[in-house]
Specification:
two-stranded antiparallel sheet, 4 strands, 59% helix
Length: 344
């Protein structure tokens, strides 16, 4: 093997470069606080770190989805609570007007207050959320109204997914009837799903939560007792019961007792929906807590793979600095010598 003076110089310079790179690498790890800054630092650990970060990012997105779902459910709960309060007042008025001590004029005057209750209930049934979407219009969130005036029965109201609404025309000339509103359930994913299948409802699937309810079902009067005086078949929603109630008072007559019964049924129905909303809100919180616990475990694993042990890092930096200093001292001596100095 041939040995030259240039080889001594080259080896010394390469040694200094190598130790400088080690010092810079140690300084980078200490300044960043990370043991793995580049894939080349530890390819296997880097791959695991990226996977853990992706999973934590997904959990954070589920948490944001949960916040959105909660805001939607709070608005729905508010609308339903307001409707229940209005119906309770209508019920009180109905019981009062059944008393013979009230005459026709009293009932006509009470009809004015009932008209305001009808307007309030109508507003809640056509509630617009903070994003400008109709809350109870099912999947037809951009509809102008969820409950429109029934073209077959003027003065009464039909759900936009009801056949009674056929023929109603919006301001832009389009038909109001929309069968999509009958589907009515929109879901938000708030956790990892085992099968990634969307079912018609969210029963038994904690990974998804329903953020809206079909308005026709929410405000439908179960086993309705009221007989409508309109020309056709009216939708059995609570708004039409109130309309029939007001029509009797406007005529100075006592309200039909069936209207009181139907108002009670509607209050019960709305209370059940509100309880279900509360259950969904609790499920969102449970999923959030579970996700946060899982994220802590993932973060601990990521930290173990990626983060730098400061004490170990300082020791490594000191060792590399000492090695660099020695290499520089050796090179300074070798630089002023030739091969003949070693052969003497």
């Amino acid at each position: 093997m041939r040995i030259s003076t240039n080889m001594f110089h080259s080896q010394g310079f390469s040694s200094i470069q190598s130790h400088q790179e080690n010092v810079l690498d140690s300084q980078l790890k200490l300044s960043s606080g990370k043991r793995v800054n580049n894939p080349s630092d530890d390819p296997v650990a880097n791959s695991q770190i990226q996977g853990l970060k992706a999973m934590m990012s997904t959990i954070e997105q589920y948490a944001k989805n949960g916040q959105y779902a909660k805001s939607q459910l709070v608005q729905e709960e508010t609308a339903i609570t307001d409707t229940i309060s209005s119906l309770q007042r209508a019920r009180e008025l109905g019981i009062q007007m059944l008393n013979d001590t009230y005459n026709a004029d009293n009932r006509k005057a009470t009809a004015e207050e009932l008209g305001q209750i009808i307007d309030q209930v109508s507003n809640m049934m056509n509630y617009t959320n903070s994003e400008g979407e109709k809350l109870f219009a099912g999947n037809s969130v951009n509809a102008e109204l969820a409950f429109v005036e029934d073209p077959n029965n003027p003065g009464y109201f039909a759900y936009i997914g009801s056949t009674n609404a056929v023929g109603q025309v919006a301001s832009d000339g389009s038909a109001v009837y929309d069968p999509l509103s009958n589907y009515g359930s929109r879901f938000v994913q708030i956790g990892f799903d085992a099968d990634n299948k969307v079912n018609p409802d969210d029963l038994g699937d904690p990974s998804r939560v329903r953020v809206s309810d079909n308005g026709d079902k929410v405000f439908q009067v179960q086993n309705i007792q009221t007989t409508f005086s309109g020309t056709g078949t009216q939708d059995a929603n609570i708004l039409n019961v109130l309309v029939e109630f007001k029509a009797a008072l406007d005529a100075g007559l006592p309200p039909p007792e069936t209207a009181i019964t139907d108002i009670d049924s509607s209050i019960t129905q709305l209370s059940q929906v509100r309880a279900e909303i509360g259950g969904r809100q609790n499920r969102i919180q449970t999923q959030y807590d579970t996700g946060e616990s899982f994220k802590i475990a993932l973060e601990e694993r990521r930290s173990g793979l990626e983060d730098m042990d400061v004490v170990k890092g300082i020791s490594e930096l000191t060792k590399n600095q000492n090695a660099l200093q020695i290499a520089q001292q050796v090179f300074s001596k070798v630089q002023g010598m030739s091969l003949f100095d070693y052969l003497r």
